[in-house]
Amino acid sequence: MLQETAKAAWEYGRKFLMQGKVADYIPELGKANPVYLGLCIKTPDGKTIEYGDVEERFSMQSISKVVALATALQHLGFDTVFSHVMMEPSGDAFNSILKLDTASNRPFNPMINAGAIEIVNLLAPTFKFEQLLDFTRAICMDDDITLNEAVYHSEYNTGDRNRAIGYLLKSKEVLEGDVLQTVDLYFKLCSMNVTARSLAGLGLILANGGVDPRNGVRLLSAQTVRTVKTLMLTCGCYDGSGEFAVRVGLPAKSGVGGGIMSCVEGQMGIGTYGPALDEKGNSIGGKNTLEYFSRAMHLHIFDSERE
Ligand code: GLN
């Protein structure tokens, strides 16, 4: 059942690829092939189900905001983190500067660029990129994650909007220290090279309450995981989060590299890769695959017709 439904969902998702467009505001991302679509599902008992382009490597982009937030919650604690960022959906594009200057000094949430840059600023004095990379490998169950140098340089060379967000935050005394170093660390985190499989691994750890089901090792506290998943549900797809929550009803985080990482409480982690994006920057193939899969399997968190 799981296997056949996953295949049907992937086939359904492929139908939408031509309606999407690969991101090219970071020039290196523009080289991705819009016909790729991969789906990987991992369950706590060690099963992996996958279709399509699951071995293709791509940059994690905004999905790394989950890693940064989880690390900050673990090491700095809930109160410190949320004295620097809020936990409200912004309703604006992921790279918007609007509300930051008009509605609030604190960024609206850690899943948009302003919030993630603030979180990375909190991590910067304590963590080197290599340590965060190692932790990413552990929570994605993928030792082969590396820095995609080409994407990193491309984003570094074109990342002035993110630098502007950093300077605005600094001018409001929300961000401290060196803006350029902070944004540089943020670019590196966005440029970590994953696969749909690595995203399913991360989803599985979140689905499993922060424990690696292969060995019982706890990587994240239950409270961290609860907070992260809630923010994924309300803010994980930027200004498309409301519609995604209605249609799919699962916590998810997307990135402009084409990945979506999602999870089903206690049951599975799901990773998709499809670089053709909708107008809000969410993978069009991934989002439709997840919608089909969630509906067919009754996985929506408010679905009363459980399997
Ligand atoms: N690195 C990207 C940026 O800052 C991440 C955005 C995204 O994935 N939505 O623009």
Descriptive report:
The protein is α+β, with helices and mostly antiparallel strands. The chain has two domains: 2-58 and 195-297, DD-peptidase/beta-lactamase superfamily (Beta-lactamase, 3-Layer(aba) Sandwich), CATH 3.40.710; 62-190, Beta-lactamase (3-Layer(aba) Sandwich), CATH 3.40.710. It has 13 helices and twelve strands. The chain has helices at 2-14, 64-76, 78-84, 98-102, 113-123, 129-139, 149-158, 160-171, 179-190, 196-207, 222-235, 241-247, 284-297; strands at residues 21-22, 38-42, 48-52, 58-59, 146-147, 192-194, 211-212, 217-218, 252-254, 259-264, 268-273, 276-277. The strands form four sheets. The chain has a five-stranded antiparallel β-sheet. Strands 4-6-5 form a three-stranded antiparallel β-sheet. A two-stranded antiparallel sheet has the order 1-12. Helix 2 (64-76) packs across helix 3. The radius of gyration is 18 Å and the shape is globular. The protein starts with a helix and ends in a 10-residue tail after the last helix. The structure holds glutamine. The site of glutamine has 11 residues, from loops.
